Amino acid sequence: MADSESVLDYPLPNPTPLEPPAEWTRLRQECPVAKVRLPSGDEAALVTRYDDVKKVLADPRFTRQLDTGAGAARIAANESGGVFNSSMSSTIPQSGPGHRRWRTRVGRWFTAKRMAALRPRIEAMADRLVDDMVERGRPADLKASLGFPLPVWVICDLLGVPDDDRDRFSYWSDTLLNLTKYDQSEIDAAQTEFVKYMSAHVAARRADPGEDLLSSLITEDVEDPMPDAELVATGRGLLVAGHETTANMISKMVGMLLADRRRWEQLVADPALVRTAVEESLRFDANPGIGLPRFISEDVELSGTTVPSGTTVMCNMGAANRDETAFTDADRMDLSRSPNPHLTFGSGAHSCLGQALARTELQTTLDVLLRRLPTLELAVEPSALERVEGLVVGGLATLPVRW
User: Fold this and answer.
1) Residue 393 φ then ψ, to 5°
2) What is the rounded distance in angstroms from the CA atom of residue 225 to the CA atom of residue 221?
3) How far is residue 286's CA from residue 394's CA, in Å, rounded to a whole number?
4) Cβ(240)–Cβ(177) under 8 Å?
5) What are residue 105's DSSP bridge partners?
6) DSSP assignment of 99-113, as one string?
7) Looking at residues 324-353, what average pLDDT do you find?
8) Domain 7-402: which CATH number of 3.30.1330.40, 1.10.150.120, 3.10.580.10, 1.10.630.10
9) What distance in Å separates the CA atoms of residue 394 and residue 382, rounded to the nearest whole number?
10) Phi, psi angles (nearest 5°) of residue 231
């Protein structure tokens, strides 16, 4: 690999939660396939260019079956407390016809048409949460008041589980997304509880189906039913992905828009920009987390560099989304940018299944905030915002606002 004498500690630290690491630009320009050291001490290859990240994510030779290799491949799987290679991911087919069948079945619930039908209910819930936040008074933590509870309510509603359990879901998700925050005994205990909970829920849905996603997976395709273990893994995966990433993205999006208040004022003046503003927020996110690992079982060339078989490749979508060769004025937040082919939701067969839902939640949240709180502003300096630490996903610990 390029720059073979230098090994960077990974993940790379952000100077502030809303600013990208300076190394992103240098790596894209000088060392697009870089050696990095994971928190475990093991090494992986980091790719930061748009074309390379897109290729790795879309190329079937790069697999998510990280336990098939040695060394860093297994470590990368374990860096997250198992999110990339737990019983959850190994139960759900990762490639071939089985994976396509699983995506088709689950994907029926995440079409743009179905999400559009869900939008009025999301808007009503967002309005109620804003009501509660305003009643409690300012300053407020927008993440705790709106950014977290809204996606939890949505995904619980889709899965037919009570959102009263959201604190437990949050803890279980955190341990599954662990980087350095929890030790292995805490992770194992939490995931045992998570599997037990979701197994009981699947059994209850099987006995008394409702109108939710898991019930539909149980009652449809009766000639080729989804096994219970796969249903449990699907429920766990959607619960984690359906609330943690979106909750973090809501607060990051609003934080970005308020950090330079001219952006917020532009949207207040022209709410029709909400759709492109959401896409630009997804692209511009400087704190997206560790990225996605892939394992390669044959030699592959990336940016003129041969990546040897057995390498774990870390794809940094945040860095790729700032690639000057893919985006004009890549380091400028352009709320009207279109087209915007960012890689935040991945690419290829493993692109984010719930991206239509995430977009709907982000657009609806922004619409509601612009309508209800046009005078919204940060209650602290942007540089004083604090990051979420120790998890695979990046985010803000809190988002203090006033209006």
Assistant:
1) -85, 145
2) 6
3) 9
4) yes
5) none
6) HHHHHHHHHGGG-HH
7) 94
8) 1.10.630.10
9) 16
10) -65, -45
Cα–chain center distance at 401: 23
Distance CA(391)–CA(244), nearest Å, equals: 10
Q: How far apart are CA 349 and CA 70, in angstroms?
A: 24
| Angstrom distances, CA of residue 167 to CA of 152, 163, 172, 225, 289 | 10, 9, 9, 32, 22
With tokens 């890689």, the residue in question is 343
Highest mean pLDDT among 53-67, 162-176, 232-246, 377-391: 377-391
Residue 203 pairs with which residues in a beta bridge?
Answer: none
Place of tokens 């909400």: 274
- Gap between the Cα atoms of 348 and 188, Å rounded: 31
Distance from CA of residue 106 to its chain's centroid? 18
CB 317 within 8 A of CB 346: yes
Residue 198 CB: number of other CB atoms within 10 A?
Answer: 24
CA distance 91 to 215: 19
pLDDT band at 74 (very low <50, low <70, confident <90, very high): very low
Residue 210 to residue 69: CA distance in whole angstroms: 41
CA distance 216 to 17: 40
Which residue do the tokens 């990336």 mark? 302
| Token pair belonging to 90 | 């190994």
Contact (CB, 8 A) for 376 and 87:
no
Query: 33: part of which helix (H) or strand (E)?
Result: strand 33-37
Q: Is the pLDDT of residue 373 over 90?
A: yes
- Sign for the pseudo-dihedral over CA of 133, 116, 238, 280: negative
